[in-house]
Amino acid sequence: MPSQRPIGDIDLDELIDWIKRRPELRHLREEADKAKVDYRPGEATPRKRIGIADDRILRSPATGLVGRVREIVWVPVRNMRGRSYATPTTDATVNATAKLMSISTLWDFFCTLPLFKFGLAGPLAGMAWPGAVVLSFLILWASNVAGEKATDRHDANHARTATLALWAFLLLSLAKTAFSGVGIDLFIGSRAVASRYSEQLIEQKISGDRKELSRLEEGGPELKAAAAECDRLKQQLGQIDRNSNEKAFQSTYVLAYGSKAAEAANAGLTPQALINKYGSVGRVPGACTQQKLLQEQNSEKARDLREAIERKARTSQSMPPLAFLQKEEPEIFAEHFRERGSELEWVNGTTAVAQATDQFWEQLLKGQFGLLGFSLFFLIVSIILTGVAALLIYQLSQNAAVKASYSPTVMDERDGRLQAYLEAMKARKEGF
Q1: Band of the pLDDT at 140, cuts 50, 70, 90?
Q2: Which of 274, 288, 311, 350 could form a cystine bridge with 230, CB 3.0-4.6 A?
């Protein structure tokens, strides 16, 4: 029987051949193969003898939860273009952009996981990793949605929305890129970050001790007051003429040094014994005697502190920073770190993130690339992927075929053509 073709440019054979060549329409072919017909040999016409349900629903392949998550992570071609129009050549271009965008967001997803894990270690404790996966996944999802929306520029209104979406994709990606190296540092080099932070803590501690030493050597308010009073009394003694005013001289001398009887009674007593005798430095007779006692006290404290500072400074040069803190400054170590078996943990995850960020960017800006190592590689790859993905998305949005895929006019034309195919199919069926 000769092939019956519809009138005009509607060619059913060509349509069927096209459907066979499209791999993404495989589910349509499978659905058609499953279709069952009702055959009635007693009917007069072929259409009545062969019956197919007119309300049959063609369903897309069931994806399930795993499939939906996979499409969020690995963006399919259909999400990067419209439904009105597509060709194999266009879809190949769209597929390349979708893959690179998915690789870029996946790369940043894994790079930022340690960042969120350490940041959530305090509030979520044992749930830090699941929480980090959720947060990083949500940012990946937002980035991919923005990238998908950025391809629709089929008219002026959608072009503005696409521009905003492209900026959202770019800014989100850059934010993740900025912390990609930091995340890798935390994941593979958390102990190294802690060690460098320990060096800072040691420097701060020794610097604080040296300031305290200077304060002791200069004397506190009590010593300064005693010294000022002693100087005043000495000045008065120098101005008094003992020949004419012995009584004034003696009374001022007692205020400065105490009475002769007290001096004799206190002779031979150590500074601490003298303080114990009177209860406090302020009760010891004579402002100059008080100044001397305070100076001796400060000198003793300063001597001990100076020796401790010098010893710690030497020891810190010969021991790893973490080991030094744990041995010499256990309180500071316990404030920032804790050990679980052979593993070192940060007490505060926010501090870990802050220190890793500061150290990474400080070394990068100083050009200390050798210290950055693997984390610098991840940062560079992230920058390249983000830049290329953004450019491809913008270029794709300018593609005439992609714009046509979003066009409602093209969709109306397509729907009209499909209706014509439907009518041609019915006409062919009538001819059997």
Answers
A1: very high
A2: 288
